[in-house]
Amino acid sequence: MKLNKINIIIILVSVVVGTIIGYFLNGSSDHQHEQAGNSENMEAESQIWTCSMHPSVRQNEPGDCPICGMDLIPLSESDNQDGFSANAVSMSSTAMKLASVETAVVEKAMIEKEISVTGKLQENENMDFTQSAHFSGRVEELNVNYEGEFVRKGQLIGKLYSPELLTAQEELLLAYKQRENNPTYFEAAKQKLKNWKLSDQQIQSIIEAETVKEKFNIISDFSGYISKINVTEGEYVKQGQSLYELDNLSSLWVYVDVYEQDLQFVKMGSEVQFHARPFPSKEFTTKIDFISPIVDAKSRTVKARATIQNANGLLKPEMLVSANIEFKQYDSSAIVVPKSAVMWTGKRSVVYVKEETQAGISFTMREVELGLALNDSFVIESGLNVGEEIAVAGTFSIDAAAQLAGKPSMMSAENMESVELTKEAKLELKPLFDSYFELKDALTQDDFSTAITKSKELKAAFQNVNMKAFKNDSHEIWMGYHKKMDKILEHIHHHEDIEGLRKNFIALSDWMIQLTKSFKPHDETLYLQHCPMADNNKGADWLSREEPIVNPYFGSSMLSCGEVTEVLK
């Protein structure tokens, strides 16, 4: 009995202890579940959702991209870059090599530019001569017969009968006889004949012959090619009257046309190398010796001149030439960077500045102000300091990484690698480009009515492009262009005059050029052409299917103004 009581007590104690232990175990488990639930809720609340095609999109919950309609995806924690500035994009050394990223230290450099110009050869006016009659009389003989005939100095070119000269000879003979009594009279008689360009030898021959000569030889005073004959045999001429004109082509002038925006690079003494069209492999070198103070109102060019020696007569007046004028200047404050380092164009341009810290390597986009555009580089007016390191190659890769990381970026077609399009995407773009070229042709013909019609067709072709035809990377690029081109085309057909439409065409052409470089949607060769005087002398580009320049920005007023700057194949 006593044993049973003990057993009952043990059982009761066990139940109580088990209940207490169970309570604590359950309480701990519930608490852990509550903590886990709270952690999951906090994580869900902090999750950021983005679009793989438009990383700038950020939302706190899943959904569709407001730009392209694609499903949003979670933003990876790996996108956070601890240790770097907020706008920097990090890149490892390995990533830089794979992306072909190269950098250079910013430094001051010589400002060098080569200006390409065209022009032609002309006669050196300082070498143009007129053969005049030294005394009045009748032309008895004339030995020069046609223009272009070469005459040497001292050559007999004709004979002249002069009553005045007969009288002067008689005075000479009389004075000679009286020379001992009146030497002054004798000297005056000789000087009179010398004033008529008779030589001492001719005067002495008259004295020795003791008789007057009825005809006197006309001797050429200059060498050169006859350019104009002003008298004929039997014609009476007065003293000083022109017998013929000639050009000495042993020295020629080279005249070239310099656009007014390039005048800052052309100075007196600037070196010029030129090629004459008949001798493309032969280079001639000279220096600028004259710059016209007048700008041509139509071509907006200034004449610059150089002198070239032509003793062998190889060069001829009116030959066309192509020339390069070299400009070199050291500016102690000039910062010069390669064009490959600069993204975008115009005053608002950017570069990527490299930074190295304990956290690693990063690049930050920085806006710079461009100065002079040189051949392969830009002068930087502001935004960079000497000693900083910038990306000079692979800038597109850095910019793409920045865009995908949601950092400030600026995609530039000039640095953008082309993306292969599907046949479907190419067909979608064909009507857009066809309309663009038709609009360009209407502008070259100054046909405003047709240009407005083609503007409407171009806008419709753009709106009808099916974005689903663009796959993978091409979709992202197209969506980037779509937004900008939509704004450009919004009012393109609302212009009241052709000048307004031409200004709109500048922005349109910029994006069509970038589109072409990004996608290469054509199976034909296109020509990137540039007019330096368009857009108030800022310069503007356009695309053409033909190589010859037909300018859409000026039409008939300056139809051939411009040059091909790039061939797009």
Which features does this protein show?
OB fold (Dihydrolipoamide Acetyltransferase, E2P); alpha+beta; 11 helices; Elongation Factor Tu (Ef-tu), domain 3; six-stranded antiparallel barrel; disordered N terminus
Outline the structure in words.
By secondary structure, this protein is α+β, with helices and mostly antiparallel strands. It contains eleven helices and 25 strands. The protein has helices spanning 2-46, 93-98, 163-177, 183-195, 200-209, 395-404, 423-444, 448-463, 473-489, 498-519, 534-537; strands spanning 49-50, 73-74, 88-90, 102-105, 108-123, 128-132, 137-142, 150-151, 156-161, 215-219, 224-229, 236-237, 242-247, 251-259, 271-276, 284-291, 301-309, 320-338, 349-357, 360-373, 377-382, 389-393, 526-531, 540-544, 563-568. The strands form five sheets. It has a six-stranded antiparallel β-barrel. A hairpin with a 7-residue loop joins strand 15 (271-276) and strand 16. Helix 9 runs antiparallel to helix 10 (498-519). It is elongated and about 130 Å long. Residues 1-45, 76-80 and 412-417 have low confidence and may be disordered.
